[in-house]
Amino acid sequence: MALNVGVIGAGALGTAIAQTMSENVDELLLHVRKQDLCDDINNTGYNTQYYPNNKLNENIKATTDINDLKKCDIIFLAIPSSAFRETLKNLKEVLEEETIIVTTAKGIEYPSLKSMGDLISEYFDENYVALSGPNFASEIMLNQPTITNIASRKAENSQKVKEVLSTKQFKVKIIDDIKGIELCGVLKNINAIANGICEGMNINENARYSILTRGFKDTIEIIESFGGNSDTAHEYCGFGDLIMTSTSSESRNHTLGILYGQRLVIDEAASGIVFEGKNSIRAVRDICENNNIDSEIVNFVYDVIIERIAPIKAFNKLWENIE
Ligand SMILES: NC(=O)C1=CN([C@@H]2O[C@H](COP(=O)(O)OP(=O)(O)OC[C@H]3O[C@@H](n4cnc5c(N)ncnc54)[C@H](OP(=O)(O)O)[C@@H]3O)[C@@H](O)[C@H]2O)C=CC1
Ligand SMILES: O=C(CO)COP(=O)(O)O
Asked: Of 10, 50, 236, 299, most Cβ neighbours within 10 A?
């Protein structure tokens, strides 16, 4: 394929989608932060930090030099949302405005309450595409069957991104709701934490799945309040990712919730693990307040994670108010 494609972020997701797309392009540029990891990838063919047992395809070339991305037609940002603005500023120095930027991050900027798409459009106009779905990176890396949704403001951009991403195993469905797709990714993390907290406290399944049902309804309400389409909540990026992340032990957000539910304190910053849901809870609560949405699930997660209210007390309040 003639398109030049780059991925920024050689973590779990960046490496996995690089591997997928390398089936479709002549050369895939993978931008890595650390020189030693870059050397490992180029010299051994392994991402020794994230996937020490999975050989990378030979046409994946790692670089630490952002200037190498100049020639790319499409660049995927597979980094935490907290790193987006800084990375976009750096990219703006070297890229043409027409470069398509794809966000894979399921987070939101605080206190601006901007989505990752909003941030990209500050630097690269409307040339962005959002990707989201029930997509554990570890499974993508193993080339296991996966579907994702993408959305953008320009149909031709979605089409190009679909072309570089699609393989026999990795399916891509374009939807027409850029706001909704991003909100789904953010909100499912909050629900995953909520369910994790309940699981950690050994709350019964009748209650847990009622809470998940309520979380799904709140997701629809929030999407609609942003002018998004409620159908998006029924997509892979909506229902699919919500259920998967809220119930799977593979999810970092779900696991974080379990730890809080068990009142086990970990040093989240020192762990180096990306907990997007934890980082976006303040933003989601502000979004609800600004739009007069009273989400008991969002309040529950805020109470436990930010206010550090005892999980059982927070749960009792949630249960009293849920209907
Ligand atoms: N993992 C998954 O299954 C999925 C993840 N996502 C989303 O993708 C995004 C990335 O997640 P994931 O790949 O799992 O995270 P990882 O922690 O596995 O990887 C993060 C990558 O970003 C780099 N990075 C971290 N901080 C910065 C920074 N300040 N500046 C530049 N680069 C930075 C890391 O570099 P270094 O290694 O040097 O720290 C690493 O390459 C998240 O928003 C997540 O929600 C979406 C779908 C699935
Ligand atoms: O978004 C994901 C899968 O779709 C990954 O979820 P976690 O960040 O909770 O691990």
From this structure: 10
294 phi and psi angles, rounded to 5 deg: -100, 90
Q: Which DSSP helix (H) or strand (E) runs through 91?
A: helix 84-94
Q: Is 270 annotated as a binding residue?
A: no
Give the ipTM: 0.99
Fold topology of 179-321: N-(1-d-carboxylethyl)-l-norvaline Dehydrogenase; domain 2 (1.10.1040)
| Model pTM score | 0.97
188 touches ligand 1 (CB under 6 Å): no
**H/E element, 52:** strand 51-55
Taking 70 as the threshold, does the pLDDT of residue 1 lie above it? no
Q: Is the CB of 104 under 6 A from ligand 1?
A: yes
Distance from residue 205's CA to the centre of ligand 2 (Å): 22
Q: How far apart are CA 205 and CA 162, in angstroms?
A: 38
Q: Give the integer Cα–Cα distance in Å for 41 and 10.
A: 10
